[in-house]
Amino acid sequence: MEAMLIDATKKGAEKFHLGTVPTPRPAEGEVLVEVKAVALSAWEKGFTQDDDPRSLTRRTRRRAVNLGLEFSGVVRSDGRRFTHGQHVMGGPHLTKGEKALAQYVAIREEYLAELPDNLGFLEAAALPIGAETALTGLDKATPRPGDSVLVVGASGGVGVYAVQIAAALGADVTAIGGRNSGPRLKELGARTVHSYRDTSFEDLTGTYDAVFDLSGRLRFGEVRKKLSRCGTFVNVNPHKDLAGTAASLFSKRKVPFVYVPHSSTAAQTRILDMVVRGEITPVVEAVHDIGRFRTAFTDLTHNERLGKIVISY
Ligand SMILES: NC(=O)c1ccc[n+]([C@@H]2O[C@H](COP(=O)([O-])OP(=O)(O)OC[C@H]3O[C@@H](n4cnc5c(N)ncnc54)[C@H](OP(=O)(O)O)[C@@H]3O)[C@@H](O)[C@H]2O)c1
């Protein structure tokens, strides 16, 4: 089958190329899915920006297909839960096994959810891990109607769902995103919007019941000053602030552990129910055919994106 491969000797988007690898055979508990669309995320951005051949060789030596953590497609084998022909979405395991930017992926059935009739492959691919990470973070922060929620990095692939889900829960959402994303973030449910280029986190004067950081820049030490007395700092990069996470153990203000290594049927089903109810909508910045994959990877590293870049097969 055709798959997106990485040449560790090349730089930027030039390192990606289409090659041929064996079509995967589903193991016990897996089904084979013909991939129709893949969304690019911070994971692919990391590979695009990594121009160190030694680092790239280390990161790619264990598997053939290293890219594609969120996808949609058609089931092409019969499993226990899913059968041939069903339209599904999901996200393979972050650290184990092959990823999805290929013609086919073999994936555990408990990572998948069936698409509703009116949701296309391109939109569905933009949902799985971004929306599940947002949902998991907000499940930990448990905002109630009227609570104030600040989303930093709101214009990215997780942020656009954090804004929508928090708004659907009735929270008063403040979003910090890219310069041009303001009007769209308001449409998605933010009441107040700032551009991170004009307003930094330190500039904000309010306090928040939850701060959700997708920019990877905030630490508990600075966030705690802007949290309400029992507020929550949702940090999706906890490894970057271990001292802060430890300090929160002695504070009323909490830093829950958020780690979504793969999608889960239960969370994906909740997300699709929200889509069907009109509470969240997939946010797609651009769609590129697989033949234009270098443009897709280049776009991914440009600032001012809103939501996901999707590659269609
Ligand atoms: N814990 C988990 O299980 C889990 C799961 C998924 C993702 N993640 C992590 O979540 C983070 C976000 O992922 P993503 O896919 O949403 O990435 P993304 O699409 O690149 O989003 C990051 C956003 O942050 C914005 N940003 C950059 N600098 C900023 C600043 N100083 N202040 C405010 N916003 C700023 C970016 O804007 P520009 O585009 O203008 O630069 C972009 O919109 C990544 O660090 C990723 O590794 C964790």
TrEMBL record:
<feature type="domain" description="Enoyl reductase (ER)">
    <location>
        <begin position="12"/>
        <end position="311"/>
    </location>
</feature>
<dbReference type="InterPro" id="IPR036291">
    <property type="entry name" value="NAD(P)-bd_dom_sf"/>
</dbReference>
<protein>
    <submittedName>
        <fullName>Zinc-binding dehydrogenase</fullName>
    </submittedName>
</protein>
<dbReference type="Pfam" id="PF13602">
    <property type="entry name" value="ADH_zinc_N_2"/>
</dbReference>
<dbReference type="InterPro" id="IPR020843">
    <property type="entry name" value="ER"/>
</dbReference>
<dbReference type="InterPro" id="IPR011032">
    <property type="entry name" value="GroES-like_sf"/>
</dbReference>
<dbReference type="InterPro" id="IPR052733">
    <property type="entry name" value="Chloroplast_QOR"/>
</dbReference>
<dbReference type="GO" id="GO:0016491">
    <property type="term" value="F:oxidoreductase activity"/>
</dbReference>
